[in-house]
Write a structure and sequence with these properties.
Blueprint lengths: L7 E4 L1 H8 L8 E3 L3 H7 L3 E6 L4 E6 L2 E7 L1 E4 L8 E5 L3 H6 L9 E3 L5 E2 L4 H6 L2 E2 L6 H4 L2 H13 L2 E2 L1 H12 L7 H12 L4 H9 L19 H8 L4 H6 L11 H15 L5 H10 L2 H10 L2 H9 L10 H6 L6 H16 L5 H12 L1
Parallel strand pairs: 2-5, 10-11
Antiparallel strand pairs: 1-2, 1-8, 3-4, 4-5, 6-7, 8-9
Bound molecules: cytidine-5'-triphosphate.
Amino acid sequence: MNLKDENLYYVGGVVRDEILGLPSLDIDFCYEGNAIEFAKNSGLNIVKENPDFGTVRVLYEGQEIDIASTRTETYPQAGHLPVVDKIGCPLKDDLKRRDFTVNAMAKNTLTGEIVDYFNSKDDLKSKKLRVLHQNSFIDDPSRIIRALKFSARFGFGLDDCTKTLQEECLGNINYDMSYHRIKKEIKETFNLNSDKLLREFIRSGIYKLLGKNQDIPEIKGSAENLINLVKPCICWIVYAGLFDLSNFDLTKEESDIIEWVKKLKRANISSEWNLYRLFSESPIESVIIYGLVREYDLAYHYLKSLRSIKPLVNGNDLINLGIEQGKLFKEIFEFITEEKFKNPKLSKEEELALIKNKYL
Ligand code: CTP
């Protein structure tokens, strides 16, 4: 990226990642002053601007980039989303409001100089996560989850004072908070797919941030293994779904997964066929969660072996046999699925023969 100005900085994670020698997917820019005015005065191609937050999106060399104005924020209510206090503040004040010292560096786009007001480089070297002020976790408890995420991603640990502040915050949670950021961080954290991280989430009491009166699940086996076996679309929910997520604003797909877990827990699984039928109707994520809290071996057996048992005939084959789409179609599929389940080695010809024999 060639966009350069003496007041324009790379900021946050991108600077941390560069020092760590890691690629950064998300590049954040910050302008010391008003970013919207900067974009206008520089003749940049503005795509979108948000004067309330002092942010602007520009199209530069074929790429859309977001530039934020330096800003201070205040938390009208601890744990709720912050409001912008001042746009165009000194860079130091903008960096001071951030989560950890390692994320509070900036790099000048013109000179390449790294701005490090808080000994961030030393913390990065000693792999320490250190908050910038005493109220950091109280203002924004999602930072506790961020710390867990960064510890898993980079092997960072909390410095002693930060650890004490985390414990204090977790020991006295004010549940009147915004769960929007909590959900975002939970997603990013559990998408890392790590049993170790789940253990730490429970051990250190971070799970309490999900809501009041959470039960600690008794985990029967490795989530990582089941996830690696079937690669579900929504990895994070397998971990988060072990807890009560009623405070989260879930999408339809996410709440279906949770509802299916409840259904599986209530079901009476009396035979392998019964298990196969039930699990194959359910989202794969729900089967994994069920396995983790109830019957690990059953879930493993289904995911590893039974799941792949499917008839080879399809709708077109039935139409070619002169069968019209409708109720009978469904019945035939149920019949052939059961036959296939009893004898997974059936060839397509054998399946068709069974269908003809029974229905034609
Ligand atoms: N930030 C913060 N408090 C939060 C979230 C973010 O102070 N609850 C600040 C940090 O300075 C962070 C920056 O905003 O570096 C950008 O946040 P984000 O994009 O979520 O994380 P990155 O640090 O860039 O890390 P990555 O994108 O690699 O996960």
